[in-house]
Specification:
This protein is about 10% helix and about 40% strand. The protein is built from one helix and ten strands. The chain has a six-stranded mixed β-sheet with strand order 1-3-5-6-7-8. The chain has a two-stranded parallel ribbon with strand order 2-4.
Length: about 140
Protein backbone atom coordinates (compact mmCIF):
# COMPACT_ATOMS: atom_id res chain seq x y z
CA UNK A 1 0.00 0.00 0.00
CA UNK A 2 1.29 3.46 -0.88
CA UNK A 3 1.15 6.65 1.10
CA UNK A 4 0.65 10.05 -0.56
CA UNK A 5 1.85 13.17 1.18
CA UNK A 6 1.68 16.83 0.36
CA UNK A 7 4.05 19.40 1.85
CA UNK A 8 6.52 16.78 3.01
CA UNK A 9 10.20 17.72 3.27
CA UNK A 10 12.85 15.40 1.83
CA UNK A 11 16.20 14.70 3.45
CA UNK A 12 18.85 14.54 0.73
CA UNK A 13 22.37 13.63 1.87
CA UNK A 14 24.86 16.40 1.13
CA UNK A 15 22.19 19.05 0.52
CA UNK A 16 21.65 22.00 2.83
CA UNK A 17 18.23 22.56 1.28
CA UNK A 18 15.26 20.37 2.21
CA UNK A 19 12.99 20.49 -0.84
CA UNK A 20 9.26 20.26 -0.35
CA UNK A 21 7.67 18.67 -3.44
CA UNK A 22 4.02 19.27 -4.28
CA UNK A 23 3.37 15.54 -3.84
CA UNK A 24 5.42 12.64 -2.42
CA UNK A 25 4.58 8.96 -3.00
CA UNK A 26 6.22 6.32 -0.82
CA UNK A 27 5.52 2.84 0.48
CA UNK A 28 3.59 2.88 3.72
CA UNK A 29 6.07 2.47 6.56
CA UNK A 30 9.03 3.76 4.51
CA UNK A 31 9.26 6.95 6.54
CA UNK A 32 11.48 6.89 9.62
CA UNK A 33 9.31 7.90 12.54
CA UNK A 34 7.05 10.90 13.06
CA UNK A 35 9.49 13.62 11.88
CA UNK A 36 8.90 15.98 8.99
CA UNK A 37 11.83 14.66 6.93
CA UNK A 38 11.63 11.60 4.69
CA UNK A 39 14.88 10.07 3.41
CA UNK A 40 14.89 10.71 -0.36
CA UNK A 41 15.91 7.15 -1.36
CA UNK A 42 12.73 5.75 0.24
CA UNK A 43 10.54 7.88 -2.04
CA UNK A 44 9.00 6.22 -5.10
CA UNK A 45 7.94 9.42 -6.86
CA UNK A 46 7.97 13.17 -6.32
CA UNK A 47 5.77 15.53 -8.28
CA UNK A 48 6.23 19.23 -8.90
CA UNK A 49 3.66 21.47 -10.60
CA UNK A 50 5.36 24.33 -12.42
CA UNK A 51 4.03 27.73 -11.38
CA UNK A 52 4.46 31.11 -13.01
CA UNK A 53 7.85 31.51 -11.34
CA UNK A 54 9.15 28.00 -10.50
CA UNK A 55 10.04 26.57 -13.93
CA UNK A 56 13.78 27.08 -13.80
CA UNK A 57 13.99 25.67 -10.26
CA UNK A 58 11.73 22.68 -11.04
CA UNK A 59 13.56 21.77 -14.25
CA UNK A 60 17.05 22.59 -12.96
CA UNK A 61 17.88 22.76 -9.27
CA UNK A 62 15.25 20.29 -8.06
CA UNK A 63 15.95 17.87 -10.92
CA UNK A 64 19.59 17.70 -9.87
CA UNK A 65 18.75 17.53 -6.14
CA UNK A 66 16.24 14.71 -6.53
CA UNK A 67 18.62 12.73 -8.76
CA UNK A 68 21.48 13.22 -6.27
CA UNK A 69 19.15 12.00 -3.51
CA UNK A 70 18.31 8.88 -5.57
CA UNK A 71 14.60 9.66 -5.82
CA UNK A 72 13.49 6.94 -8.25
CA UNK A 73 11.06 9.04 -10.30
CA UNK A 74 10.43 12.75 -10.66
CA UNK A 75 7.30 13.96 -12.46
CA UNK A 76 7.07 17.58 -13.59
CA UNK A 77 3.55 18.75 -14.46
CA UNK A 78 4.04 21.89 -16.51
CA UNK A 79 0.95 23.99 -17.31
CA UNK A 80 3.14 26.69 -18.89
CA UNK A 81 4.05 24.35 -21.76
CA UNK A 82 1.12 21.89 -21.48
CA UNK A 83 3.30 18.86 -20.81
CA UNK A 84 4.36 16.33 -18.20
CA UNK A 85 7.98 15.24 -17.95
CA UNK A 86 8.76 11.95 -16.20
CA UNK A 87 12.39 11.52 -15.16
CA UNK A 88 13.65 8.11 -13.99
CA UNK A 89 16.90 6.25 -13.32
CA UNK A 90 18.92 8.78 -11.29
CA UNK A 91 22.67 8.85 -11.88
CA UNK A 92 25.66 10.93 -10.78
CA UNK A 93 26.20 12.94 -7.64
CA UNK A 94 26.01 16.49 -6.36
CA UNK A 95 25.24 19.22 -8.87
CA UNK A 96 26.12 16.86 -11.75
CA UNK A 97 23.39 14.37 -10.83
CA UNK A 98 20.63 13.84 -13.37
CA UNK A 99 18.16 11.29 -14.67
CA UNK A 100 19.05 8.92 -17.53
CA UNK A 101 15.49 8.48 -18.79
CA UNK A 102 13.21 11.36 -19.82
CA UNK A 103 9.67 10.84 -21.12
CA UNK A 104 7.62 13.84 -22.21
CA UNK A 105 3.85 13.68 -22.68
CA UNK A 106 1.59 16.49 -23.84
CA UNK A 107 -1.51 17.34 -21.82
CA UNK A 108 -4.31 15.12 -23.09
CA UNK A 109 -2.03 12.07 -23.42
CA UNK A 110 -1.88 9.52 -20.60
CA UNK A 111 1.34 9.47 -18.59
CA UNK A 112 2.44 5.92 -17.79
CA UNK A 113 3.75 5.61 -14.22
CA UNK A 114 5.02 2.01 -14.21
CA UNK A 115 6.64 2.41 -10.78
CA UNK A 116 3.11 2.87 -9.38
CA UNK A 117 1.42 0.56 -11.88
CA UNK A 118 -0.94 3.35 -13.02
CA UNK A 119 -1.49 5.78 -15.88
CA UNK A 120 -2.10 9.43 -15.09
CA UNK A 121 -5.03 10.86 -17.03
CA UNK A 122 -4.07 14.38 -18.15
CA UNK A 123 -7.13 15.02 -20.32
CA UNK A 124 -8.48 17.66 -17.92
CA UNK A 125 -5.18 19.38 -17.10
CA UNK A 126 -5.31 23.10 -17.83
CA UNK A 127 -2.62 25.48 -19.03
CA UNK A 128 -1.49 28.85 -17.73
CA UNK A 129 -2.22 31.15 -20.66
CA UNK A 130 0.04 34.09 -21.31
CA UNK A 131 2.92 32.76 -19.22
CA UNK A 132 6.37 32.74 -20.75
CA UNK A 133 7.81 29.23 -20.83
CA UNK A 134 10.75 28.40 -18.58
CA UNK A 135 14.27 28.40 -20.00
CA UNK A 136 15.13 24.74 -19.61
CA UNK A 137 13.84 21.98 -21.95
Amino acid sequence: MRLLRQTQDLAIPGESSEPQPDLVVLERGAEEGPGRLIPAPSVELVLEVVSRTSGDRDYGVKRSMYAAGRVSAYLIVDPTSAQCVLLTHPTGSGEDADYRTVRTSKFGEPVPLPMLDVELDTSEFETLPGVRTHRRP
